[in-house]
Specification:
With about 200 residues, this protein is an alpha+beta fold. The protein is built from 7 helices and 6 strands.
Length: about 200
């Protein structure tokens, strides 16, 4: 398990050399970021418990699911900063995603937390629902919905690059502590994935 976590982090420096990561490494990084987004759910589940599973088993599992992916994210940022792994973007327009965060909490996390787990079938159904949510979040590039960013004072902004600057006209999501992103000016945010950037 340690190798699956460490290898994508160590080989993340390949982004700096413009070689890109292998597909499984990209998918694993997205998977870990999705789990990081669901940390509040895992914390609540660790507190509430699951009647069908002993405390000694479910508590460390849920706690690990809440902590390890977020550590993965922090290490990824540190490695990207160390390697100078940035992406040049000239912002044409941007929108704030705070409303999406509220929708994410009330529409996704709370229903999963409130689901009853009284029987083995309930446990199977809840696990399947969780896996489907994880797949949807990863497939739709929604792995930036991390409530801890908001708690730490960061904003989640979707930016549209300026096509005239030679950049692809593909929206990117930037995690930033700034109130706004300057338009028409080249910025060099840290690359977490090709889609998710960090601009301190």
């Amino acid at each position: 398990m340690e190798m699956f976590i460490i290898v994508p982090l160590l080989r993340a420096q390949r982004w700096t050399r413009q070689e890109g990561l292998e597909r499984w490494e990209v998918d694993f990084t997205k998977f870990m970021l999705v789990l990081a987004c669901m940390a509040p759910l895992f914390i609540l589940m660790a507190i509430r418990g699951v009647d069908l599973i002993p405390w000694e088993i479910y508590f460390p599992i849920f706690l690990g699911l809440a902590i390890v992916p977020n550590l993965f994210f922090l290490i990824r940022v540190v490695i990207a900063v160390k390697n100078g792994d940035t992406k040049k973007i000239r912002v044409d327009d941007f929108t704030d995603n705070r409303e999406q965060l509220i929708t994410y909490i009330f529409a996704m996390l709370l229903p999963l937390f409130q689901a009853s787990v009284a029987t083995v079938n309930d446990l199977y159904a809840g696990t399947c629902a969780l896996l489907m949510v994880i797949y949807i979040f990863g497939h739709m590039e929604l792995y930036y919905m991390n409530i801890f960013f908001s708690i730490a004072g960061y904003r989640i902004i979707t930016v549209m690059p300026d096509v005239s600057s030679g950049a692809f006209s593909v929206p990117h999501v930037i995690i930033t502590s700034k109130e706004s992103i300057p338009r028409g000016v080249d910025i060099h945010p840290i690359r977490i994935t090709n889609f998710l950037l960090f601009y301190k």
